[in-house]
Specification:
13% strand; Serine Threonine Protein Phosphatase 5, Tetratricopeptide repeat; Cathepsin B, Chain A; 329 residues; 2 domains; single chain; 7 strands; seven-stranded antiparallel β-sheet; 14 helices
Length: 329
């Protein structure tokens, strides 16, 4: 059948369909609640009434490159000199015409920065009030037809009910809180605080902070990771993973004596921590102290736990080295 002969819907019906779709969009938007904004307005004492990071850097984005621009602003705010154009190759995916949130997170860590995920409007406002701008991911359209966009929140005013963002090509864009929350809510409230190692977020969450510090280790930024762990240990002085992180980064940096001293202290303070005895055994072996290495490894194996197979491998390596040294004699 020729396409020219296909039956077309009457103009009035097509217009009716468009109007119905538009009405549906309005209903969806109207139905989007803003529980966190409403909560802050009901309990305004939970945050400062107004805050503004006046000196927050601004880089205008190029088409589809809001991710590199937002990351550049966050890195610059943390004290790094950055070239936004150089970040494009790190975080921009041409096939997607944008940047994945995981790539933004990883790139911040590769630049030796603590990449800390924030959680919700209250957390966002408290970081801003402390002078720390925050990268946010927004969906500027509908959930079914998303239009993803990265921006940097640099201020807010509870009395006016507005937020201030560096967004796209516009510095200091003002947006109603409710509108912002709807766009942020549709992106699952994804937000990222980028800090110099040694700095802490306001009211840091232990698990999220540990993830941020461990991310620096995974990026092989050992000095930055150690600074993050040390700062964290001041806030959580009895936390075992934080102390282990300091010891591990000493080892990664080749500071065997410091690592051994720290793991010995951890083992005394946490006598059931198999990982501490295992790592102590590793360090003592590399220092040539085979008897003490074997003692620590045997203790780790005796403690057992989910990593017991690793402990057994450590003990086997020590015993192999012991046998080799005996043969050499």
């Amino acid at each position: 059948m020729s396409s020219a002969l296909r039956t077309r819907a009457p103009q009035s019906k097509r217009l009716a369909a468009v109007k119905a779709w538009a009405a549906g969009v309005c209903l969806v938007l109207a139905a989007c609640a803003t529980p966190q904004t409403d909560g802050l307005k009901e309990r305004p004492w939970e945050v400062a009434p107004t805050a503004d990071v006046i000196d927050a850097p601004f880089f205008a984005q190029r088409t589809k490159e809001c991710g590199p621009a937002a990351l550049a602003m966050a890195l610059a705010a943390s004290g790094l000199k950055v070239d936004p154009d150089a970040l494009v190759a790190e975080v921009y995916t041409p096939g997607r015409e944008g940047s994945l949130a995981t790539d933004i997170l990883s790139a911040a860590r590769r630049h030796g920065r603590v990449a800390y995920r924030i959680s919700g409007m209250r957390d966002l406002f408290r970081q801003i009030a402390a002078g720390k701008p925050v990268v946010v991911l927004q969906n500027l359209a509908l959930p079914v037809l998303p239009q993803w966009h990265y921006a940097v929140v640099v201020g807010y005013d509870m009395d006016e009910g507005t937020l201030t963002l560096h967004s796209g090509k516009t510095p200091r864009l003002t947006m109603p809180m409710e509108t912002f929350e709807r766009t942020w809510q549709r992106a699952d409230y994804w937000g990222l605080l980028v800090l110099a190692p040694g700095q802490l977020p306001v009211e840091p969450d232990l698990d999220r902070y540990l993830q941020a510090a461990a991310g620096l280790e995974q990026a092989r930024k050992f000095e930055a990771a150690q600074a993050a762990y040390i700062a964290g240990s001041r806030n959580w002085p009895d936390n075992l993973p934080m102390a282990m992180g300091i010891g591990n980064t000493h080892y990664d940096l080749g500071n065997l004596h410091e690592a051994a001293v720290l793991f010995e202290w951890i083992a005394r303070d946490h006598p059931n921590a198999g990982d501490a005895f295992n790592n102590l055994a590793h360090v003592r072996l590399e220092m040539g102290n085979i008897p003490d290495a074997e003692t620590a490894a045997r203790r780790a194996v005796a403690l057992g736990g989910p990593n017991v197979d690793v402990y057994r491998q450590t003990l086997a390596s020590i015993q192999k080295s012991k046998a080799g040294s005996t043969t050499a004699k």
